[in-house]
Amino acid sequence: MLGLTRRRSRQILAVFAVLALAMGMLSSTLFDKVQGGGYIAPDSESSRATEALADTFGQAPPNLVLLIEADRPIDDDEVATAATELVDQLKAEAGVTGVGSYWTDETPALRSADGRKGLIVASILGDEAEVDSRVGDIAERFEGSRGPVEVRIGGYAMLLRETVQQSEKDVVIGESIAFPITLIALLFVFGGLVAASLPLLVAVVTVMITMGTLWLIALATDLAATATNVATLLGLGLAIDYSLLMINRFRDELVAGSDPGPAVAATMRSAGRTVAFSAATVAVALSGLLFFPLLAVRSMGYAGLAVALIAATVSLTVLPAILFLVGTRIDKGQLGWFFRAPRPAPGEGFWHRLATAVMRRPVPIGLAVAALLLVLGAPFLGIKLGFPDERSLPESMNNRQVTEAIQRDFTITEQSGLFIVLPEDKSGLDGYARRISDIDNVQRVDTATGSYAHGGLLAPAADIHEQFGAESAAYLSVVPNTTDPGTLDQIVQDVRAVEAPSAVLVGGVAAANADAIDEVISTLPIALGFVMVVMLVVLFLLTGSVVLPLLAVVLSFLSLTATFGALVWIFQDGHMSGLLDFTVTGDLPATVPVMLFGVAFGLAMDYQVFLMARIREEYDQTGKNEVAIAVGLERIGRIVTAAAVLISLVFLGFLASDITFMKAFGIGLPLAVLVDATLVRGFLLPAAMKVLGDWNWWAPGPLRRLHDRYGLDEGPSVPSARVDKDDWRQPVGV
Length: 734
Fold this sequence. Notes:
single chain
């Protein structure tokens, strides 16, 4: 393969250029194929209730709201005529059902307190993808000025639509911020235009191919819009990480006296293998997200797998081809002393000195740093899980404005209600409805025979009575007296605990959220177990040890404690909300910790692979554990630090998003990377490896023989100076 790359460098670059352009053109319509939402558990009770409601009664929970505003009372004849025409037009729309309004139903709750606003509510039938597509067409034709009234569109359907639109804007903004900042940082790392431009070139190719791949994935299966944000910035970050590692090793080979051809070959044997293993660890971590049934999480898994594999492929094909062509000109275009990145003298580097100092007192230093990380992670013990609503979008979005207007000016709470489908028979229905009406914070329960509140019959419920045409099924509408998410969660639990006359299915937004949280929690052990087992196998193949993989996993978990503590402290408890410009909801979307763990754990293991591969190489040459730690950290420390800083700068692009839970990635990922690159790599890793001593490299005989046959080691290329094994602190270097 390497010989082909050397002989056909220009042809390889031409092929990837064409491929990148073609995939980039495909991705231009990507946001027409992705969808918002993705937080519904498809096989849950609430989902089955929604299906039963649609299949049996042709109904769906209200997910579309038209806010009608006028400059006069809405009972005015001209306003009433315009609003009634809108109702008739909406009823004529395919796939729209349950249309009701203040003007046609004379429901007081659909009229604002000041009498100048009214509501039209309806349901769009279909799954999230169908609803997302349908509401865009409806909004385009219904929104705006209609005679004496102004129409604005809201509801859950519009929330899905506007999430897609905002994600598309955020991708553009994130890239426009990340690329120039990254170029400046690369100039500081490499000191020259040629070397600094190569990682960005690899990143551009990676991102373009990744986005085109997502377009192809969206053809085959549903894909959530938020995965595109992560794919873009993660692709940029991984491509730069891998390029830094390989370019640094290539320059080391040139400094050691190799010609460009042999230097590329040595780079591929050493850093190239590390990149392959690194990509495998990232892919394994993100593949755990595929176990979750929620589309938002699963889409992140698809995107992450694609990014890791594409970034590694481009780094191992395009970059070597460029290095063959550039050769010794890699350091051309130096920009003067300010941008130069001086290399420390052998044994005098910061990371060598730090590792040496830590290994003098490994136990107290290691325990102190571990305790600090656990303290920083303590806020995570108070996490409260929820799901995104209109408050996660910017205040300029229609759905948020409409929802806030309803909460401020109307008394309607039906859109937050539950529905109950009784698929077998209706015997005992009235008694069941009375028991539910006695639940705290339930305003009333509508049935075929009437509305019940605290055990009493209020009035006939004609609006729901006509939907009970099926002899074998019935449904009830449970209307709360609040829209508070915490109270609604309790109502869901209480309703499901009431003794029913037959099998029942409870649905509604609050029920769907509760079911989704349950799915996330129940799936987590399975996903974690899979990731841990496969990760340990991959790291064993790299290190030949059964101890180091366990150590790497434990340290990677510790590196995430501060991140998860910060998530709760900032986004749940509301600290820094003014600085970061988001609305505090008092909870965290259940998908955010899971998705953030997948990406951050993959990156933490990514850097562990970088370090352990180089430490293993030094150990193979010297046979001395302490020497391997100090020299390995010195050799790889500077470039891993640069990679951590660069990828953190890239991830800060998430902060430009106007979607609150995407901002969480902009805080969580840089924090995880920087903690791993400083506290874990600088203190915990050398301390733990010093305490373990030669046990770091232990494996039972059968596994050692297995590794000798199937394992992949980084072969030594840049020679190390000889070291007195009785004095591992003396300077060692290239």
